[in-house]
Amino acid sequence: MTPPVAEPAAATALQALRVTWSHWIEEAVRSRLRIVRLLPSGGWGLVAFLAAFNVLLGLLPVVFVVVTSILVGGVPAAIAGGLDSAAWERLTALFLLASAVFLANQVLAPVANAVNLRLRRRVDGVLRDEAMALMLRPVGIGPLEDERTLDELSETVRNFDRDWGTPGQACVGMLVLVARYTRLLALVVVIGVAIAWPAGLAVGVAVLLFRYGQRGGLRKYSRVSREVVGRNREIEYLHQVTMTAVAAKEIRLFGLTEWLADRYSTAYEAVQQHKERARRRVYLAPYLVLTSVGVVFAGFALVLAAELATSGRIDLTELALGVQAVVLAIALGGYYAEADTSTQYAMLSLSALQRLRARLDELEAGQRRPPGRDPVAASTPSAALVFDSVGFHYPGSSRTVLDGIDLELPAGQCTAVVGVNGAGKTTLVKLLTRLYEPTSGTVRADGTDIAGFDPVLWRRRIGVIFQDFVRYELTAAENIELGAAHASADRAAVLRAAERAGIAEALLALPDGLDTPLSRAYPGGTDLSGGQWQRIAIARAFYALEAGATVLVLDEPTAALDVRAEMAFFERFVEMTRGVTSLLISHRFSSVRRADHIVVVDGGRVVERGSHDELIEAGGHYARLFALQAERFARGLDADGDSLEAGVGEESR
Ligand SMILES: Nc1ncnc2c1ncn2[C@@H]1O[C@H](COP(=O)(O)OP(=O)(O)OP(=O)(O)O)[C@@H](O)[C@H]1O
């Protein structure tokens, strides 16, 4: 006998219902609670004041309606009684009261705006700091290459970058709702008292249905922004690429303008079409249904009022009051410009912030070891830096980049790591500087695993330039000082670092010397050649040494220098850095011959090690590649095939 099986259609429907329900709870309830929980960061006093203020703002129009209705109701008696009658006096008093209420409403609204702004700034300040701290929290840069983290981050930060939809504005929006719903409640009571309670309730239900149609549609529609977040990032990137001076050259030379414009408009159109379809889907049907039902409820209240008035069961005052209250209440069923959009998009941003926090926790939990917090002795390393069976693959990739590498960088000496493109040389530097953690093995300084060190203090020990160093749009001096931003600026040390990098003379000749901005986007600013920029980056690393770093890492430091400049640099380098633990990385074998030790890396492993002479004598990998590059050099080409003559005296731009 076959066992009974659950009805699949019913089970599926139940499951779908559960999912819808949990989505609704998350989007409509928990997201709102997140905003409410933010309110204290604006200061309790301010929040309490605004809440009370909004109750007042909510009630004032209702008071106005009540007073004017009583006023209208009193008109026949006042006319009959004449100017000296008590009824006329009452009419005058009511008129003055209505005017005062109207005036108060007009005056208080701008006051509320000013106070709202203060609450918004406070809350946004707190959250902006939190988002920034979250992104600086990871010890390494892996999370910045993780697509999910990037999506959450861009969604979180997007709202801070624009002028609306910030979480602070959402807090204001929540308090504005206090005004709106206080008004609705008061109007329901007024309709109940003036006409009949069923009429009051019917209007209340109608308004809530209208609101749900509007607000619920917006809630569903806002999900679309999450669906297109990746596409939006592409649009932003394409937009940015067309704006940068660096890309401008290639775009024109390769004739990319049309291609980029096409790609941009295709991505843009795709996003717009997706949004358009979503808008029709989420707004139309619910809007029609809810509005029709709402109209029936509101109509019922008005018909009831008319019926009671014609049968004489309510008087003129009550009719005027009831009808005005119904009209005012129905107006509350629409879209609230001051609250709805900002609250909705801020809720998305807060949810993204929450997911970002969770994603970072998850990435941290997946790390082999928690980040250490131990101090680093000033003399570290006094013996050696050691890579001990270090294995590594990049997060999200299964490709082994380092395959149990063993490498020793003796303290106070210059070690060169050479290898072909993609051999894993830069990855070694990323592990040494703890931008990533090894997937196996350890990196040790004087026998201590560097994973135990406070990463900030450890990084201060290392003056490093990467091949893709940053050209900051700052002054020449600042560009160098950033090598040790924690230390107080020292002009003499900047000059020494610039001299060692061979750029001091060129910088002092600039219009404002070291204070010249290195970007033409600023008044008095100038740009440098590629080689000069590279020297600035080298000076940045030397400046770190001036500020107390004990390890110097130069990753392809001469890629943009001409051949003579490169040779001159390496001639002096070993002399200049005597006593410093230095790591020199290059794929040009000819450039590292003066290093104390040379290590050849291939396929994520050390394949040879020794001094230049030892390696040449061994006649292996190094000797072969050295001979090959030397031969090209002798033929008038540098190691990369550039003309030797063309490079002399002029560094490439
Ligand atoms: N962020 C990353 N994510 C995934 N793979 C990466 C990443 N960075 C580098 N790789 C891969 O790791 C390998 C080693 O890269 P690495 O930059 O260390 O090589 P390299 O020896 O410095 O090369 P080059 O001489 O060209 O600078 C390469 O195959 C590269 O594609």
What does this molecule look like?
- The structure is a single chain.
- With 653 residues, this protein is α/β, with parallel strands linked by helices.
- Among the domains are: 27-365, ABC transporter type 1, transmembrane domain (ABC transporter transmembrane region fold, Up-down Bundle), CATH 1.20.1560.10; 469-549, Rossmann fold (3-Layer(aba) Sandwich), CATH 3.40.50.300.
- Helix content is 62%, strand content 9%.
- It contains 21 helices and 10 strands.
- The protein has helices at 8-38, 44-81, 86-136, 147-161, 167-194, 197-227, 229-241, 245-253, 257-310, 316-331, 340-365, 425-432, 455-460, 476-481, 491-500, 504-508, 530-546, 563-576, 612-618, 621-634, 644-647; strands spanning 384-392, 402-410, 414-418, 440-445, 448-449, 462-465, 551-555, 581-586, 597-602, 605-610.
- The protein has a 6-stranded mixed beta sheet.
- Helix 18 links the parallel strand 7 (551-555) and strand 8 (581-586).
- Helix 4 (147-161) packs antiparallel against helix 11.
- The longest helix is centred in the middle third of the chain and has 54 residues, at 257-310.
- The model is unreliable at 638-653 (pLDDT under 50).
- Adenosine-5'-triphosphate is lined by residues 145, 394, 397, 401, 419, 421-427, 467, 587.
Write the layout of secondary structure elements.
Blueprint (H helix, E strand, L loop, with lengths): L7 H31 L5 H38 L4 H51 L10 H15 L5 H28 L2 H31 L1 H13 L3 H9 L3 H54 L5 H16 L8 H26 L18 E9 L9 E9 L3 E5 L6 H8 L7 E6 L2 E2 L5 H6 L1 E4 L10 H6 L9 H10 L3 H5 L21 H17 L4 E5 L7 H14 L4 E6 L10 E6 L2 E6 L1 H7 L2 H14 L9 H4 L6
GO molecular function: ATP binding; ATP hydrolysis activity; ATPase-coupled lipid transmembrane transporter activity
Subcellular location: Cell membrane
Membrane topology: Multi-pass membrane protein
